Amino acid sequence: MAILVTGGAGYIGSHTCVELLNSGKDVVIADNLYNCKKSSLDRIRALVSKDFKFYECDIRDAEGLQKIFDNEKIDSVIHFAGLKAVGESVEKPLEYFDNNVNGTLVLLDVMRKNNCKKIVFSSSATVYGMNNISPLTEDMEVGGVTNPYGRTKFMIECILKDLYTSDNDWSICLLRYFNPIGAHKSGTMGEDPNGIPNNLMPYITQVAIGKREFLNVWGDDYDTPDGTGVRDYIHVVDLALGHLKAVEKVEADNGLFIYNLGTGIGYSVLDVVRAFEKASGVKIPYKIAPRRAGDIATCFSSSEKALKELGWKAERGIEEMCEDSWRWQSQNPQGYPD
Ligand code: NAD
Ligand code: UFG
Questions:
Q1: No. of H helices and E strands in the chain?
Q2: How far, in Å, CA of 133 to CA of 126, rounded?
Q3: Which residues are catalytic?
Q4: CA trace torsion 160, 155, 177, 237 (10° rounding)
Q5: What would the mean pLDDT of 325-337 be, rounded to a whole number?
Q6: To 10 degrees, what angle do helices 11-22 and 39-47 make?
Q7: Does ligand 2 lie within 6 Å of residue 179's CB atom?
């Protein structure tokens, strides 16, 4: 039996596929290649001992998905496919609701028709909204999100909870990611954003290779130790290993499970800049700029529930996250080849 990985050619999906395949699981990837390069699939192949099937398929295409279920023995789904740029979602809300929410509805309907009722979903710490105080625990009220991207994650969580209530044969795991950074140790796989990066680490690595002049630090007047925003950065390989545990959980038990995937530790923007400079030996010039709309001061997880119930905890520290991000960026200045 195989795991269908939607969005498996993207940043987190590709790292997860490496860990799934190396643990002996059968994997089928479905991706429409909207936000990735096909060459990421070759990079996965080079790191694993076992092959996998790839379908160029949009999750909104029910017929395309049905063909995958006809051809393969799919037992469970890890659902990464989605659009993820907060700013873009404000400009293009309809595209975000269509791709993320409608795409998930189409996927769930095809799964139900094929009696496949096990799913792990990529949610986000963004569902905790602006008002909860860190460390964030899974039992806190969610909602109050400030942008269309975040709302798609919140809405999909609601849909999956309602689905489980309607039919307890489903087994559903909502994974709330904190801030994934880092790259595979080999330096052959990593994050490859289009255009100007929104997120901190890819921006820093592009400054380091000389693609950008300096980093804008969005605000130094927050109520945090050095005034800059504090986040829970997690190594993408730790995140990938969390998916292995989560898929084993939905394979073993029925239920609706919710876990934070974070380290439980918060670092400020300037902490990350310093850690990166130490790991790379490259100075990162920065300027303090006004706060970015929608940002909160502090966001970090409680990671106790995932440890208790999945036996998972993040093992890789900030130094390793920075070293691995730098190895990827310096060895692949243009990202993945076309
Ligand atoms: P990514 O863009 O690198 O990967 C997503 C993949 O999904 C891409 O390869 C893209 O081509 C594919 N895709 C998008 N829409 C599709 C569709 N309709 N049909 C088929 N494939 C489609 O992003 P990522 O960072 O790997 O994120 C994976 C998931 O995790 C996303 O759902 C994202 O919202 C969520 N997430 C990411 C972060 C983060 O900081 N990276 C944080 C929290 C949650
Ligand atoms: N930051 C800068 N300069 C930059 C980029 C970011 O100072 O050029 C700061 C931000 O203000 C924030 C911190 O660095 O304090 C982290 O910002 P990111 O954009 O890297 O990450 P966010 O915490 O804002 O959001 C990310 C994802 C969201 C996801 C959220 C929680 O982008 O999609 O983590 O998982 F919802």
A1: 12, 14
A2: 13
A3: 149
A4: 60
A5: 97
A6: 30
A7: yes
Atom of ligand 1 nearest to the CA of 192: 3
Closest protein CA for atom 19 of ligand 1? 58
C-alpha 306 to ligand 1 mean position (Å): 22
pTM score, whole prediction: 0.98
Atom of ligand 2 nearest to the CA of 85: 33
Which residue's C-alpha comes closest to atom 33 of ligand 1? Answer: 84
Distance 200 CA to ligand 2 centre (A): 6
What stretch of H or E contains 270? helix 269-280
Going by alpha carbons, the residue nearest to atom 32 of ligand 2 is 199
Could you write out the three-class secondary structure of 192-249? CCCCCCCCHHHHHHHHHCCCCCCEEEECCCCCCCCCCCEECEEEHHHHHHHHHHHHHH
Question: Cβ distance 150 to 124 under 8 Å?
Answer: yes
End-to-end CA distance of the chain: 32
Q: Which atom of ligand 1 is nearest to the CA of 59?
A: 19
The answer, yes or no, to whether residue 194 has pLDDT greater than 90, is no
Task: Give the contacts of 241 (CB within 8 A, at least 6 positions apart).
Answer: 19, 312
